[in-house]
């Protein structure tokens, strides 16, 4: 770092000089430190995934020190009494040992699992933010596609991860995966035999998914995350429209110290939440499930939440099996599991290209859109979300049926009908809401804010006083173009009333004296 | 939309860095100018340094850091000294019950307090700032593109890619098998599925020298008719080596002792292929326990409605109608294991399942018997 004499600590200057002599850092470091970042809470959702991922690498490394991916049959003689003397795989035994006989092992296991759930959840929420604000549009389509791939790699990384302990629940998950694999036309049975080295469950699958889980997929995730963030950095972050903000600039604060301090604080915050959850909330108590046996399963066998929608689709899909006599069968599970998952990968990947094609919008967009301003896309997104939620709820329909005392078959039928009907209703309702919000924005721009003050004129007519946002013309109308900014909807947003959200535990709204000069100003907008 | 927003910045003249009168901040601003950054707003959070309010904020932040350090110390101490070893079912009074919550809470609080310290520092002590930077979106300049183009063209020309088509073709020709060679080792994973889906542990020829295979329970006890009361059911396995283990994933079978009336119904409904082999013995019927949907054990037996339910995806099978699917995503009945009782009074399977049990697979033959009702 090149510093002028006498302006910095001389030792620091000297060290900077030595570094610069060798690595020529002065200019790049300055550019990095000065880089301007736009600020909005919704830009931090992806970071939750990044910080969870770092914690996953750390806690996963700890777990790998103790876990043995072996399906060798052993007799349990560990500390957990109810399972003593039971035959199980070494993988399950070492997972139990991790939970009971390694100092802090249970804590680390739970931290790894909670961090995974947070990782996947934040990817989903982050993806919704990107989708609904149109941040995937040119020039950022590549990064959107990388994000989708990240989700799916994370999906399988998570699934393989919770399959490793070889407990009763995870074995059931693998069993279902085998059924799905074998349904694939032509290659299904061969793919299954390759994955399990013969017949399910065999004795090799744990070591197979172990190397995928601890090496191949983390490597892919790490590489993709690096590119993902690198592209955000190189292409510069999108920003919300607002005063002075254009497609050609970035308004915000500097990378150092402001942005980096907030990021570090946020990272520690996320880690703190996960650590506290790992200590206080139990997750995946594998010792209760027992070792995996092909003949044992219990009800309430649910996968982790991000797999649930797929499991729900499998539960809902009708018993349609196609037979091509005499040799071939296309099992019912093929449609929801293989075709459904394939579409769930493919459609999001190509969505930016589809939108480009149908809207013929080929321009670069660095300003975000408010979801209401693109009702078609927003409604489509809500439609997909509703479809996903119905699927996920159906993935736990046996639990819902039991807890709420509903017939299981009724739950299934509700899901079957709901997954077709509800997304359509959601599309329509969302579209109307978007249009309504748009209309209200225009109304406020033309007539002013609703003050909530009702007046009666001498003729007995009641009217609401409006506060115009600019000097009105003779009809009381203001000619303000809508330009994608947030339109103020409350008086305290335009400074006429103090903000209502002061105070930490409860709002402190300071009542203004209803009269005097302020009152005159409000009345001036009547029409 | 206006073009580049840099008209204002053009007015900011570059400063002469050799000017000895320049302040630190003026030099700093020259850096911003070179990075196409302009300050919109920049003021210290506390205009007068050293006020009470500023001191108070500093105290809060340092307090948060110290709290974080305290909890981190507690975490390390608890990690080392708190009794942690699991000694059977402990009550809430035993300290080891609290080991995981204590280390989780201390580490969590330590991280949270440090986070709050850093965040408060950033939000309450850093200057209030707003800057604008040029985005420079939309590709390189025309000159750069042209130069890049001719650079690539020169490379292509130097290598003679256009002039030596045969070279290129032969390279591509070699690359294809070379790529294949790179993935070929994965072929070591391939294994012929063979008859793994169709032959189960009940196959007497393969696993019991052709002798009929007896039914056993998980602990190895052979099964006699008097062991299951009417209306009851047990899970049985082939009485062979490791018959009750995961080595025979499609062998687990439910042996159900039907009540007389239910057995009568079943006898009336029995598929011809099961009639032909006399698949049920007395009021006893044996169904594959492996769901024909995706292979979970269809293990929940509802005596009243005579249904078997698979808890994974809720397929339901009618016990008194060949275990045909009546609800849910399963498409085929649970295959029946033909059983009888041998001379010594134990159940034996008279053959393997007549149709492959378990989930369907792509090359599962469509058997005409299955569609006979």
TrEMBL record, chain A:
Keywords per UniProt: Cell membrane, Electron transport, Heme, Iron, Membrane, Metal-binding, Respiratory chain, Translocase, Transmembrane, Transmembrane helix, Transport
PROSITE patterns: CYTB_NTER (PS51002)
Compositional bias annotation for Basic and acidic residues: 518-527
Top-level class of the enzyme under EC nomenclature: translocase
Residue intervals passing through the bilayer: 43-67, 111-132, 144-164, 208-234, 264-283, 333-354, 375-393, 413-431
EC number: 7.1.1.8
Domain Cytochrome b/b6 N-terminal region profile: 15-241
Region span, Disordered: 502-527
Cofactor(s) it depends on: heme
GO terms for biological process, alphabetical: respiratory electron transport chain
SUPFAM superfamilies the record matches: Transmembrane di-heme cytochromes
Bilayer topology term: Multi-pass membrane protein
Signal peptide: none
Catalytic activity: a quinol + 2 Fe(III)-[cytochrome c](out) = a quinone + 2 Fe(II)-[cytochrome c](out) + 2 H(+)(out)
Subcellular location: Cell membrane
Protein name: Cytochrome bc1 complex cytochrome b subunit
From TrEMBL, chain B:
Keyword set includes Lipid biosynthesis: no
Residues spanning the membrane: 60-82, 102-122, 171-190
Keywords recorded for this protein, A-Z: 2Fe-2S, Cell membrane, Disulfide bond, Electron transport, Iron, Iron-sulfur, Membrane, Metal-binding, Oxidoreductase, Respiratory chain, Transmembrane, Transmembrane helix, Transport
PROSITE patterns cross-referenced by the UniProt entry: RIESKE
Topology term for the membrane: Multi-pass membrane protein
Record CDD domains: Rieske
InterPro entries: QcrA_N (IPR045603), Rieske_2Fe-2S (IPR017941), Rieske_2Fe-2S_sf (IPR036922), Rieske_Fe-S_prot (IPR014349)
Keyword Iron: yes
Subcellular location: Cell membrane
Domain Rieske: 282-348
Any one annotated GO CC term: plasma membrane
GO molecular function, one term: oxidoreductase activity, acting on paired donors, with incorporation or reduction of molecular oxygen
Job description of the protein: Iron-sulfur subunit of the cytochrome bc1 complex, an essential component of the respiratory electron transport chain required for ATP synthesis. The bc1 complex catalyzes the oxidation of menaquinol and the reduction of cytochrome c in the respiratory chain. The bc1 complex operates through a Q-cycle mechanism that couples electron transfer to generation of the proton gradient that drives ATP synthesis.
Family: Belongs to the Rieske iron-sulfur protein family.
Entry protein name: Cytochrome bc1 complex Rieske iron-sulfur subunit
Taxonomic source organism: Glycomyces albidus
Higher taxonomy: Bacteria, Bacillati, Actinomycetota, Actinomycetes, Glycomycetales
